[in-house]
Each structure stands twice: as structure tokens, then as C-alpha cells.
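During the reporting period the student researcher (J.K.) took over the structure-prediction task from the postdoctoral fellow and processed the backlog of single-chain submissions. One of the processed entries is reproduced below for the supervisory committee.
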Amino acid sequence: MAGTLDIQNAGNIIGSRGGGGNAGSGGGNPTGGAGSAGGAAISVQKAGVTINNSGTISGGGGGGGGGGMGANSSSSNTVNFGSANYSGTRGWRQNFGPHGAGGGASGFYDGVNFGPAGTSNTTSISQNSPPGSGTMNRGNPLGDGPFTGSHTKRYNVGGGSYQSTTTTPGGAGGNGGNGYGFDSSSVVNAQSGASGSSPGGANGGDGGGAGAAGSAGSNSPANNGGAGGAGGNSVTSPGSVNYSVSNSGTINGTQG
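J.K. obtained the following C-alpha cells:
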């Protein structure tokens, strides 16, 4: 710009709104997303600008932060099982060294593993994978033939139990509310943050009013909410050039 520019405002000059942060969720980031900053109403990039305001100049409101995802919860259940014939999914294996020396035992039952542990005299082994407090008892041998080298003999299952753990994911947090300001075609009011989902999802933060920062999203016991977006300046000068303001109306937001 060459020369000077005199802005006479008797109406409304409104910055763009800040968007609300995303909710924390299991499908993405469990931490709430940050709200975006509101936009400036006027950006002065060349010296020689004078602003005379008798109307309203407002920076956009910052978006509210998203709420944190709720904590996961777990519950355990003990499943008892009876004796079963050796198969591809259920059985007991007893390891032996050369000339019949005793080795460790291992068992398996529908995807649950027991041992390896013990010696040739072991008749009960503890649950190993997934971790739990269950045990498996050794049943009758299948009559595998004699071996002189290291070998493994098969046994039926003599009953036992396993511990099953079920994990319930925490609920998603609430999205942050959009801030006050211009939204592509019109000026919109600040929105409240959305409520978090059960179980335990934290609420999103409220969008900020004219020139004000948005609220941070709420924390859950497991995850933090996102930060609120900064409020937009009423007048900003990215190049730090000088300008002057005369005001008899309303200005919302910092002049920078």
C-alpha cells in the first residue's frame, strides 16, 4: 500500500471462529484435541492505517478443547473345565530327556496355555498365557511308545480351570465447542462442548465468546482434555507496523 488508509467502521467487523478440538477416543488419540485459535478481525500489514470505530470490532472466539477418553475397565471370570481327551486344542505334554529323564510339563485348553513347569512327577501346572490364576491337572497317558532320546509324551486333560479377563474400553470424550465468529457465510455464536460418552468420557470445553479463549476440555481419570484455542485479536499487525485506533464503540479482543 502506498500512502495512508482510513477505516471508518460503524457496523461490525468480526474475525473467524476457532474450531473445537476433537474428542479423545479409542479409534484415534485418547487425549482430547486442542481447539483452534480465533481469527483477527483486522490484520494491518502496512504502515499508515488509521481505524475509527463507532461500531463493533471483535476477534473470533477460540474453540473449546476436546474431552479426554474414559478409562478402560477390566473384569475377570473363572471358567472350570472337566476332563477331556487329548486333541489339537486340548492336552498335556510331558517332556523327557534322554533315557527317560524328567523334564517340564505344559498344557493347553482352547487357546489358554499352562506351564511349562515342573518335572516328570508334576500333575498340576498353573495358567501362563493369558496370565491368570487357573490350573490344569494331568490326565491319563495316551500310551506313546518308549524312546531312548529326548521326547515328549501326550496325556489327556484331567480337568482344571482358567481365568478369563474382559476389557471394556472407556467412553469417548465430547468434542469441543466452536467459538464465536464468522463461519464461511455468517457470524455464529459460541457453542457449548459436547458431553462425553459412557463409561467415563469427559466433556468437551466450551467455545470462547468474541475475542475470548475457548475452555479446555475436561480430563478423565485416564486421559487429559485438550487445551482451549486462543481468542482472536481485534486488530493484529503481523509485521509489527504502526497503526492507530480511535474507538467510541466496542472492541473485543487484544490489539497486537
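The committee noted the following: The mean pLDDT is 95.
J.K. will present the remaining backlog at the next meeting.
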